[in-house]
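Figure-free illustration: sequence to structure, shown twice.
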Amino acid sequence: MKASELAKILGGTLEGPDVELAACAGLEEARPGDLSFCKDPKHVKLVAGTKASAVLLPPDWSHGAPCAVIRVGDPNHACMAAAKLFAPPEPVRAPGVHPTALVDPSVELGENVHVGAYAVIEKGSAIGAGAVVEAQVFIGEGCRVGARTHIYPQVTLREGTVVGADCIIHCGVRLGGDGYGFNNGRRADGSVFIEKIPQLGIVEIGDGVEIGSNTTIDRARIGRTYIGPMTKIDNLVQIGHNVKVKGYSGLIAQSGVAGSTEIGYGCLVWAQAGVSGHIKIADGVQVGPQAGVSQSLDGSVKYVLGAPAESMKDFGGRVLLPKLVAKLRAEVKELKERLAGK
């Protein structure tokens, strides 16, 4: 695609040669024929050294570039739009049921549903119009999948799971497995027993939720484990039984939320953070990377770090304290030496 054609599509202005473009790449990885982007002047050196054939830059960029420039209001957004133009078309999942799929006769299939090879859908389940159930997906008894939801290969929905409309469930996700629940103690004869607590509830996923690969969400002990609308969950996240995420929140890779905890609207749990059970996190709170939250957060502090989690101010003060002490010691030593010299 010519740079002039792309500039027209993106609503931008071309400056420099009308080069041929075939792909998008970062400034450092770009090669001739690639389009890159930059919106922050602090990366001016990367722009100066790029081998891209063209760069998307904001209207007020005044630092030059070694290649063609397409000026746009938002280079980041424009690059995303350009990448879609360059990318090969996504695989088409035509409506219909693959001959190797096992779909119980009682299952309700909406219009234009795709069911892939070796998928299993058990009795009493319902799949909404336009949904895609890819190869080797298992959907247990009495599940509900909303319209236009896309379930990628090798996903498991245990019995009773409810998934809303317009969701994306990536490969290897497990919804509705048993939560971690056991009673233990000693019998009259002194022997130890460990007794499994039945997990009799369900998992319910709201509309517009996206769940990354190999994430697990446990069924409730009773009632439901609930993930509210438009929540975005990364790969390898663990969510325990009876957790409630109200909606419009994010949970990033390798984070974990223990049972019966409630997470408010618009929260963000960063990578490898751990949240204890039976607590509440108020709307809009962020839990920083590798933080450990053991008590409820009422929203008076909007970003916590560390283990146990604390405000950024307290965390920063605690981390910097040893350095401040060392500095003070050096200054005291210098003063003593100067006084001794007198």
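We now fold a second protein in the same way, so the two outputs can be compared directly.
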Amino acid sequence: MSDAANETKPLGWAVIGTGWMTRTHMVRAINKASGSKVVAVLSSSQERAEEFAKEFDIPNAYSSLDDLVADPAVDVVFVSSTNELHKPQTLAAASAGKHVLCEKPLSTNIQDGLDIVEACRESGVVLGTNHYRRLKTTIQTVRRLIAEGAIGRPILARATSTGWLSEEQQTWRLTSVEAGGGVVLDIGVHDADLLRYLLDDEVDEVSAATGHSGLLKGELEDYAVTTLRFRNGTIATSTVSFCTPGSIGAIEVMGSEGTIFARDLLADKLGGEIYLRRGGLDLEKVDIGSEEEHYAEAVHQFNEAVRGNGAPAVTGEDGVQSLAVAIAALRSAERGTVVKLSEVLTESALVAS
């Protein structure tokens, strides 16, 4: 493991992949967060890597994964390649003693996700899953209100993440089953993570219906509704789409003593509003205070975990659990039946890993 984890100098981050997430959010977030700096980039094309490095003032550009993980300036690797490459790239980084923040979904199947968790554990490196939406101040506030009992016991919940897939993202997401294309593994897995986090509970069973508007190719779904039954009895729904212009990001949690409404929770923007309704028709607006930039906060918490101060905001184990929900949803839609999470992933398998 790199000695930089125990030093005060900034952690050197490498980014794998030069696509939308890296370009739009993560390079800036890594450089903005306290104690980190992007020092290397990897692309399948050396020319593209060098162009990206020049654009973002990154010292080192690579097209070889072996060369990247051998770079002594690299302490942390952000894996943001297509999803089927997450496992081999994460395992190579962990084997070289590099900590890994992996873009969601952690992998395209459960076994690969478990292998990633185990490899990082055996190598003694920190592993995080980049479910950055947890770090939005609005989401943190909703979780706090639920934990404080503001609405009593959660009974029903609803997450909505719908919109039109931007032109720059209309690449492998449109066509590649192998890479995890489709809205459920791309966005539904985010909703699964948010609902697990807000309710502080795990999913017991899932049922889902998916649809094809024609935006995505073949049998890849571009809209879906999933029902999740949690262990403590809460029933939640997740509504996601790539094909409905006019983005909506919203959370509602209905409890035994009131309801929380949170709206305008767009993943790529700050802001959002939260309202409470308890015992009447009046809405009480909740003051969320100043909002932190959630991408940079995710990086900051990861840096702190590398330095031995707590855990990442979202662990590798979290990534596997939310992936299991998404896979169960796809399986349910294909079969037309309810799917138990125990069929997809047993707790003993996760603990054993």
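Summary for the second example: Residues 347-353 have pLDDT under 50 and may be disordered.
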